[in-house]
Protein: Lipid metabolism-like protein
Organism: Caballeronia novacaledonica
Amino acid sequence: MNPSLQEGALAGLRVLDLSRVLAGPWAGQLLADLGADVIKIERPRTGDDTRAWGPPWLAGADGEPTGESAYYLAANRNKRSVTIDLGQPEGQALIRRLVEKADVLIENFKVGGLAQYGLDYASLIEVNPRLVYCSITGFGQTGPYAARAGYDFLMQGMGGLMSLTGRADGSAGEGPVKVGVALTDIMTGLYATVAIQAALAHRERTDKGQHIDLALLDVQIACLANQAANYLIGGVVPGRMGNAHPSIVPYEDFPTADGYMIIAVGNDGQFARCCEALGKPEWGRDERFSRNPQRVEHRATLIALMRDVTPTRTTSEWIGIMEAAGVPCGPVNTIDKVFADEHVRSREMRIEMAHPLSQTMPLVANPIRLSESPVQYRHVPPTLGAHTDEVLDAWLDLSGAKVETLRSNGVI
């Protein structure tokens, strides 16, 4: 079957995305990529905060900035934009009517922020008992911090990630460092997508919707993974180790003649082959290094020995040698080199879409590969309010005259 004619896995699902910035929009984009009809509800005139988070801006056909920021474009593909003023009673009424037709609502207002408009979960579940209502906040709906605003950077610090990221105390450049992308927001968006689909599966069995309470801080703590387990089980607070791994050696970056490479040895067999590749087979027989627990114990000695050898060849030379020996090894790429990589190109991780304000625009592809219901790139990230008329007509059967009255009154 022609992929362009196939429906997405979530075709028929209707989602109202009232969220802004990244965590909520990321979940909405993923649902949209999988085939859901995601309606992005935005403030008239200004829209999502990230629309103003530039430069860089998408360039128009004339080469001039269009006013569409790269940040906004990264998280809003495949959606349709509808502008509604939630501060007006008529706007609130429109949302309630849309909720009657919707399966899912995503929002990231402060706790209680939508109650003043009658758009909180308790109010909307009366309108549509089957609604899956996903709330994303910094600290959750309960607890002493619930009323606080939360941002990704704050959560990376409060949630422990920055205590693990950066150079070790006593080394050059020591100190906590955040991850270079808003990772907590992204992970929260992924958890939200999983939770929404779980709630929909539950609804299939019970015919009841439910409220999803997702907190950025909770997600960040959950994603500490083995580091949290190391503390809870071992009782030792892990610290910053730069690019090293707390439980595996060698598993970090090494200098080469022209830059850096990563060697990621996952077992003793790989280590023995790594030693052969480095021209030091005796290290693989050394009782200090032959097994991983001993390598962890003698980490400093082994890493110093390896760092004496790795600068003797270029990164590409070492990668060729290590690959031939079956040792996981790779470069530390800048983003331009990521998209130039032959494997990344073969996986088509960069896509091009036509945009109404530009000739084409590049985007990062969705990494999910489904054999029977592949991701379809149906809509570019929408311009503000681009679909207001068509959605109000299709979902609510509002006539052109009624829509124009709403527009003249500033409701849409």
The chain has two domains: 3-223+345-408, 251-255+260-331.
